[in-house]
């Protein structure tokens, strides 16, 4: 990757030693943020001991070294219910580490539509909205109708039975009657944040095409 | 079936002659409404010619003989979009033929939430609400949060791709974050109307347990 | 929620401390019943110690504070087999806590149809019937043919192989040849009870439209 | 195949000429019944013109040459509803052509359980029962509980939406709470009749092990 | 159930005490065999201590009281591979306890077709054949072509990936090109044995219609 | 919708007359572009005759009135193969009508990776990339690795058998190893264009927050 | 593609004119065989008129220009039943056009295992075997056990109900108990022939690594 | 199996004692390699103690006795990402034990296409390529376009959500736009190696038809 671009290690299936080795190499080879996702706290401690200078965010299960300074691109992360919290935390923490300005709007599922409407202002203030919802995932459609900004929908595996471990929310978001929604993989707070980072990149570049890029793959 | 209870013939796969024969027998054997569902107009004409006294509602593809007088139980039939119309028409026409007082609220999908909220009064005035929605079926959750009355959700096969011919809306409605919704089969406006009829029956009986039943299977 | 309406906390994924905090807040904010579902006994004990005045029903894994007084709306909860017991227990306990008059009819699966027929009287005495059945879920169709009242079918994850963890029973109930059945999510005794509560609400309101509501979301 | 055993040609995808050729060859090579299944009437006429001595049963879409004399093994073919008729007709016609003594019991779906019970005598008189049912397929479970004889369940593609073109009835029959049911492919009246023929073979052989077989593959 | 008919308790989800209670009641109420399936050895010991006179077959995880005397109806249980052993053991043990004469033919999967052909004699000697196979389940088709007797196919959950925990074998057996196969649920050695028992019943009754039944549900 | 925002009518299931009526109303009520999607040429002619001022793009099956002037936001629409053409045409035509500057890069599927690499320059010049691919949808991953800009992946129903009418490409794109891709519904060139329009909106607003919006839902 | 390598045009969705244009370009640009698959006879005639020198094989729906001379690599194409014929024809015709020496072995499905065994010699004489089978696809496992050569299994969409349009055969072949089978897409006679062509290439190259390649993608 | 052919024991569900017994028998009965797959290290130690002369490869979870001498047929095993390592290790170790000359090319997923292209030389040097990839499995298509040799694609269960435990990669590989790919079961490094062994066999035989076979099933 180019200088300044973020590098992300996927934790599951790797030992603390393996993660530490990869992270060290990435820190040496590049100058941008380095992240490790889906890290349990015990592993995190061992990795941080081996590779100093990092920080662990337990709710997001995220390790971060050299977070990017917070820029001007504003992202709202919105959740339907309490159980969607961990996925939203990952989205928010990854986005923050990549330099996006993150706001979190919690527990505004469509079964209580007035709570969502009360947040219209905060939603419309964002340059992009990440909607995190499980069960039937209806929140994405409602938000898609409220804002003109890009909406990145993250289905979660919250729910049981017919929720099919997130597949129902995924299919529902893809079939949304709100036009122009986009969708990422089930429980992928990480994917949503990376998509938002691409948006921030596009907006910055569009504003000043000749300026250095804020991080990416060029 | 008991005297006064409705009888319903399912049209597909039967000739006009077969339908006429069954309908005639049911009219003779009983005293309540007799319906035939999913009837194309050419077939309807032939059946009406053979069994006088009936009426055809083309939008609902429904034939009705001896409709029940309209009672006091109020049902609102709500649709998400234009394409959900035929299923809603079937629900409304069957419910009307069974003596329910029907109101139709059209095109209030959650991507335009303010249109739905503007109809809150009409929705809350109903004794039961039938929600007809395809694609992601999110309307059921929003309505379920707005009214305290029973909600019968009808997923429709409207949409393409990930909508999976109604399966996505079905799964979404069953996984709804709005508590106490109930669901019927895909495109089954008929099933929803029959469920509403059972509700009307229960309400009437509950009000005056010893009174004669308004139609049912006792 | 409006004064007097029930509030329900979903237990899974929350600590005893978190549950206690939410329940305390709900008890303070409102005057109706407060429930917590899917609570294991160890957690229940800790929550009850922190929030006095509640009661735990182990078979239903339910915690209840301020149960509603039992009213006149009668619900029969019917099961196909022994393994459907826990889901039926949840349905019965939640319905009871919301003020419905609950009867339980056990182990009347259709493979022994005479046992079911012997219970026809108790089934017909109810204002609504909740049918709890796994495997092929055939009991819902049989009950739907025996009673004129609303039937709420709850598929359970009982069975193996082709039972597909409840999906088969779910699909079967939705495809039932008995008209007007409604269905809730797999294993959702809670959902069925909430649906019955909506029915009781509709019946009460219908009987005396101007009277205060027995609990709901108005 | 051995002398006297039945031979069956599968019609779809073959021209009348091709069917006539295969049937002629089979008639010459063997001495038992020769059948052709799923034949539309126009094709049937052409084949019968080319290969004399056969008969066409339109409801079953079956062509038969040299039907076996009717023996003592009694099979009841039971249907849930009118739409299951064609599949039942195929089962009955194939079984009859193979020498089984066939009774048909119609329209006894579980939503009207008393109609089924009224037929208990005819069902118990059979040596084997073929149950033909679509939608939720619940009839198989009810019959399985009423008779001690072998039950061969045939799911049909009757129904819409959640009936999934017969898959729901198939899964339901395989998950039945009635022990010892067996299941054949969706809409395979042919398969059920062949399974019944195997049963008749086993019963005859068991009764007099040294006697010549009534038709089979030995 | 009628005097002499078998009674079977399904173990999973029940305590040793509950199983013992049900078994005792069944032994008292009836005179035929009583079985409990899917019982782990520790539970079995406790149940046997509480209800004397029973025996435990660990490979089949089966408890049996009052097994039926072995009769003349011969069943061959055939397996494709070593891993199909436990399901075959359940089929064989249940069939044996119900009075069938059982032979087991092991490890004759179609990838080594000559091993299967070498067993043709034993297969043809049986009155019925139970085929137990996982992965692609091809053994059922091969056996169906070798014998004229009834074939009951039991798909197993053996295999990984595309084997889909038995669903692939199930679908394959239902789609078999060998005519007249019948299929039971995945891993249901029990179901296959009960189906064989129904066959034995039919054969015995057919041989001497007025004789007392060998066990069933009449 | 707000003044200047686009309005889109979904054609299927509507007559030319109905489409003309809706389009006329939208043209009168608002000042932005009005589109109708999935319109066959015969219908298009009739609608254009009734509502003058529109234009029809046959490859995209799109009708457009009052297209927006082309702005500075550049979108590349990339296809894997010839058969993906119609979906790409819809994406390109809708995006163009909404004022985006569109480039189309054709037939660069990953089986000929050098053709894709030869287009790297055109891809990197775009502010956002829409990838249209059926079959296994691998092109989205390859493009995601080549550009830092937002990637909107559109799975198409091109392919047969295991391609499952677009479901395979959909699942593959959602599971992509290239981070930050987003996905829309199968064959939804429309959805991808609307998502790109949201991006353009965000970029424009980000560049000059106080300027009037280029079209949206505010 | 390199000089001498085959080029293949996929016909569906293209007009005769479009096909003729592509074929002409490929004939001019390269020196190897040029094929067009899935071409109906009317289209074929038009294309042949426009691009002389080609030949049409109707059973395979294949157009061929400049077929490769037949080499020494021998491929056996084996089918389970009559209905698998068209897919086998495509496999055989494409393989032949690419220079492979093709033998076809017909109708040796496992339900008649002795017919298959009688062909063992022809099967073992081949350098590679293509197995074409629908329904349960069991033939692949049986052939895999009979030969040591590479086996390419082609599932077909032959069958109904549980055959799921070829998905069952596909899953079964992938789960085969015969080790080292490989599988291509449903109905893809073309894919199997191309895979065999890759094998011939590898064998030829392995035999004389420095010799010119017999056609491929280098 | 014939003298010299490999024998492979499937470990899961077998005790160390059972594995040792089967391996000993196979070593005695034959002269070729004997393998045991999917063996955990503790079990491996016990088996090696009981059956001397074997070796354990922990990354591949493989036990090998009498490995074949390495021949001239070259196989490249290519992986998309780190998590695909264990499946690739099984493929490489089994192939090596069967006498193939194995090269491993790691971590060349299509999201970083230049890393893959940099390995083109090593890939083209191989007689056959095994591609191991999870998530969307796109690597198989890219490799299929780069080499003319046979490609055996192994989907892995790496990924989450829409990756559906390997089903997505499986379907994607079967739907690949690169012609002539073949596919084996999910996570079946073993199956891919056995398929490669069949290829080596074919190539050797083709080169010198009368020479003794390098191992197989003849
Ligand atoms: N057992 C249950 N199944 C489904 N939903 C439930 C259950 N128990 C409570 N709920 C719903 O969960 C929501 C509360 O979720 P939470 O805020 O996480 O406690 C409320 O809308 C309840 O109606
Ligand atoms: N309706 C049917 N459904 C399934 N299989 C059938 C049917 N009719 C005939 N067959 C079987 O199809 C095979 C004959 O196929 P064919 O050679 O194509 O005529 C025989 O094995 C028959 O047992
Ligand atoms: N091709 C399309 N695919 C999906 N949605 C569409 C398409 N064209 C229009 N729409 C949406 O359909 C809705 C209009 O539907 P209707 O009222 O039926 O015309 C609007 O929300 C549009 O955004
Ligand atoms: N990892 C594996 N995956 C699939 N099949 C295997 C594997 N290892 C061995 N086998 C096959 O399993 C069979 C032996 O099974 P078993 O008799 O249970 O040891 C042989 O046909 C092997 O080819
Ligand atoms: Mg939600
Ligand atoms: Mg909708
Ligand atoms: Mg049940
Ligand atoms: Mg039925
Ligand atoms: Mg097997
Ligand atoms: Mg593609
Ligand atoms: Mg076949
Ligand atoms: Mg991958």
Each distinct ligand: adenosine monophosphate, magnesium ion
Largest interface: D-E, 45 and 47 residues
Q: Give the biggest sheet of chain A.
A: 5 strands, parallel
DSSP strand count of chain A: 9
Shape of chain A: globular
Structural class of chain A: alpha/beta
Radius of gyration of chain A: 17 Å
Tags for this model:
homooctamer; 218 residues; alpha/beta; 8 helices; globular; disordered C terminus; binds adenosine monophosphate
In short:
The structure is a homooctamer of 218-residue chains. With 218 residues, chain A is of the alpha/beta class. Chain A has eight helices and nine strands.
Give a verbal description of the structure.
- The structure is a homooctamer of 218-residue chains.
- By secondary structure, chain A is α/β, with parallel strands linked by helices.
- Chain A has helices at 16-29, 41-50, 85-97, 113-117, 120-124, 139-146, 167-174, 189-207, and strands at residues 7-10, 34-37, 54-57, 62-65, 74-79, 101-105, 128-133, 151-155, 182-183.
- In chain A, the strands form two sheets. In chain A, strands 6-5-7-8-9 form a five-stranded parallel β-sheet, with helices on both faces.
- In chain A, a hairpin with a 4-residue loop joins strand 3 and strand 4 (62-65).
- In chain A, helix 1 (16-29) packs across helix 2 and helix 3 (85-97) runs parallel beside helix 8.
- The first copy, chain A, is globular.
- Chain A binds chain H through residues 10, 12-14, 155, 157, 166-167, 170, 185-188, and chain H through 82-83, 160-163.
- The structure holds adenosine monophosphate (4 copies) and magnesium ion (8 copies).
- One magnesium ion is lined by residues 80-81, 109, 133-135, 137, 139 of chain E.
């Amino acid at each position: 990757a180019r200088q300044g671009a973020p590098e992300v290690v996927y934790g599951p299936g790797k030992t603390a030693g393996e993660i530490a080795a990869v992270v060290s190499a990435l820190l040496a080879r590049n100058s941008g943020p380095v992240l490790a996702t889906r890290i349990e706290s015990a592993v995190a401690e061992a990795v941080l001991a081996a590779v100093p200078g990092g920080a662990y965010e337990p709710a997001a299960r995220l390790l971060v070294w050299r977070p990017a300074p917070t820029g001007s691109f504003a992202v709202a992360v919105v959740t339907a219910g309490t159980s969607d919290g961990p996925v939203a935390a990952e989205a928010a923490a990854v986005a923050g580490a990549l330099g996006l300005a993150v706001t979190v709007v919690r527990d505004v599922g469509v079964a209580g539509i007035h709570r969502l409407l009360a947040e219209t202002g905060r939603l419309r203030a964002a340059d992009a909205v990440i909607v995190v919802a499980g069960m039937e995932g209806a929140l994405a459609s409602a938000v898609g109708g409220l804002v003109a900004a890009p909406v990145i929908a993250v289905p979660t595996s919250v729910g049981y039975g017919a929720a099919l471990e997130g597949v129902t929310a995924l299919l529902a978001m893809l079939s949304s009657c709100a036009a122009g929604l986009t969708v990422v993989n089930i429980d992928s707070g990480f994917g949503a944040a990376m998509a938002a980072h691409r948006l921030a990149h596009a907006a910055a570049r569009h504003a000043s095409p000749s300026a250095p890029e804020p991080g990416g793959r060029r």
